[in-house]
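Morning run. Coffee first, then this:
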Amino acid sequence: MTNKIVNDIARLLPEDMLSEILKHAASNSAADFVNARLSCKAVRAASNYDQIFENVSMEKLNFVPWRKSEKVLQKRCEAAQNAEALYRKGMMDCFSLREFEFGLHCLKKAAEKGHVEAIYTYGIILICFGGELREQGLRIISSLDLTNSSKRRTRIVTSCRLKTENFLSNMWVYAALTEPTRISRSCDSDIRERPNSSSTSSEGQAWEASKNVGYCCDPCFWDGEATLFCSLLRKYLIN
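And here it is:
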């Protein structure tokens, strides 16, 4: 289909309908969305809305944007409050660019939009701070609702760990976190004492993702998870 035909079709559609089509395309593939924007002026004009960039799928884009076109798209998505873009900006600011306060703000905004990895990361950072912030972090992570199913916990936590390591391995890490101070509880064990919990496998299973009630309570599980998160940061830390 030539650009002229695409342009003729685009001109026949109401702009709001065309925008809705582009929103759907953007949520499935950033590449398809970008190609559509380049096809004709009518499509480009209909695509300049925040609600579209807010829903752009960044799944197949590099975690760290190196090309100019990727940087432009990343910034536009951030401005539109795209949850994945905010998460990526937060990770970069916190652990690479040393703009921790702004990075934490981005992670918070992404978490408030329900972004799973942002909830995980933001909650763990607060847990590492200790005190009332630790309690706030535990409340935030509880929104993942992992208590009723060990399989769900394993799946979500393992996914978060894999994405965290993939992200850190693709950027320069110049900042780390201090491990949380363990608070004594009545449970019998600490997740940090489990076999093989200190290493990381390609499948992400070596971070002990499953949670058995007999091992520890939720606060101890997340204290251990925060400790493992800190260990992973140190693994990629550039001194």
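The radius of gyration is 21 Å. Good start to the day.
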